[in-house]
Amino acid sequence: MSILRIIVAYLVFPGFLFTSVVGLFLTWIDRKVTARIHWRVGPPWYQPYADFLKLLLKETIVPEGASKVLFLLGPVLGVVAMTILAVMLFSMNFNPQVTFVGDLIVIIYLLALPPIGIIIGGSASKNPLASVGASREMTQYFAYELPFLIVITSIIIKAGGTIRIGEIISAQAAQGPFLYSFSGAIAGVVMLLTMQAKLGYVPFDAPEAEQEIMAGPFIEYSGVSLALFKLTRAMMLFVLPLFTISLLWGGFADWWAVLKFLVIVVLVILIKNTNPRLRIDQSLRFFWIGTGILSIIGLVLTFYGL
Amino acid sequence: MKRIVPIGPYHPLQEEPEFFKLIVEGEKVIDLEINIGYNHRGHEFIAQKLTWDQIPFLVERICGICSDSHPYACVMAIEDAAHIEVPLRAQYIRTIIGELERIHSHYLWLGLAGHFIGYNTVWMWVWRYREPLLDLFELIMGNRNHYAINKAGGARRDILPEDYPKIEKYLDLLEEKNTMFTKAVLDDPVIRARLEGVGILSREDAVAYAVLGPTARGSGYAIDVRKDEPYDAYDKISWDMIVCEEGDVLAKAKVRLLECFESIKIVRQCLKNMPDGPIENRVEEIPAGEGIGRHEAPRGEVFHYVRSDGSNYPIRHKIRAPSFMNIPSNEVAVRGYSIADAALVLAAVDPCYCCTERTVVYEDRKPKYSGADLLRLSWQKTETLRRRYKR
Predict the structure, then answer these.
(1) Measuring CA to CA, which residue among A75, A3, A44 is closest to residue A234?
(2) What ipTM describes this predicted complex?
(3) CB proximity B4 to A under 8 Å
(4) Which of A17, A220, A205, A31 is nearest to A121 (CA)?
(5) What domain range includes position B332?
(6) Is this prediction's pTM over 0.80?
(7) Domains of chain A: which residue ranges?
């Protein structure tokens, strides 16, 4: 692979540009479906792009006394991580041979970067509400990471102990998607819930609850830095369902995958619109006790091959 | 470590200018300081410069949501001062509008409460069914808000008999939807997890802070002007006072939702029993003396006092709105809960800041101005005005 192709892969397709465009389109679907549920009309399709461009043109203000480097590093981390993730997942789905041993581990670490970016940025912005939000984000990260890792473990066991995504996809091509088994369905439910939390959507949006702490960690952000946070969210809306499909629903084997993808996105939107926000201690309890036990049951079932 | 988390003066929680200083340790609220006074408009003072006929229009603009309650209490005070009887039909008309306004105000609160717990679907749905009510107001009185139905001595507009079926039709729709909302709010496990046992205001505290309306009735403190001192049509029809004992946010929501059913009941009976006759007794003269008007607004008792010296202006007009009594009770209700709950508890009393706004002499519980300071400020103002308009 020549250097040029790598650069194009990361910057244009399927990297930064493609993921951003698709991700922002998905946020439009989110906004439109939400609006229809609310009996509203909803924005036109170009609204997310217009919002993003508008934010790019605005001034970026660094609050006085804030650590400049950390404050501006926060938003960049998420975008970089999501770009790398998108490239990795895409190439693995269409060409399962290109993977390396342990890429699943790398992806789990990359998925941790956006919350870390939010925590760094929120703590660096020297605002009491931002630090409350950052501490909530931290709590929530530890909350959903436990069931998430248990589910990943059970998927690894299902795939025969491999930690290469390409092999997980080929295993599913051979024996059918994991989701259709009993433990796979449990894993799917847990994945959906952790996805909701990773996206920071209701009911797990306590870190940025606008009515309580005015968007929390993002309160001091403006202009390009805020746009990057929004973009990270949008890219996550593209990458996380893709990740779920790769691990549980057979990967992008055929065009049905697009439908599967949209089903996951719409499910996320529906959960978002039919629940009130949980308090941070409630969501911690939800993930560690409720979802945690559920995912352990799934793990045990996996051992028995169900 | 103590820190201050400010809610206000500008905050997405409540759209009006208010300032709650939450003093927190971690996420736990240990104390609350309430500051108002960002939007003082001097209504009582302006009222003294207007004629008796103009005052209901003025007080109507105190609050956009209670835009029937203030003029209602105000005309009752004027009628009390002038010793006039209100014709029966006007009494029924006023009662109908008062109760329809209660529904619209409770729906406004319910929608916002949904928004405050991040449940925007509830917000939009509730407001969707509030919308036809505003249309109904426009149909009856020509305005979606600021209805101007109250007039000393009667009602300004009649409800036409051909409009009765339209009102009935809306009430049917509303009853169905209110059942739906009551079920949706009270049976949803996640909503219960957020609201139940949060922001408990005990009956003792409710009495000590003299809270009013649904806030009091949610704490088991059964007060309602409509029952305690019935006026207009409220003693001529049958309805129940809703009281809940728990005192938490859920109880307040429950009281409001169930009160909407009572309001529907009242309006239906009023329409059925509506007598014929004139809608107004002309007020010729307001004799020297004083009058008191009390009306159960959606948020609690609104109190108006007027004093007349026989001229066509009041020499004193005193207004006390229910939110003024309800907001200080947050101080005890919010203590010990987390910031996330505090946002809910502060909103649970259905605060209305335009009713509450006063000249503020206390800030953070410390005196800001003494009497001498206020006098000096007043003199300064007079001096500036004098210089500006020097002849």
Answers:
(1) A75
(2) 0.81
(3) yes
(4) A220
(5) 39-338+348-359
(6) yes
(7) 3-303
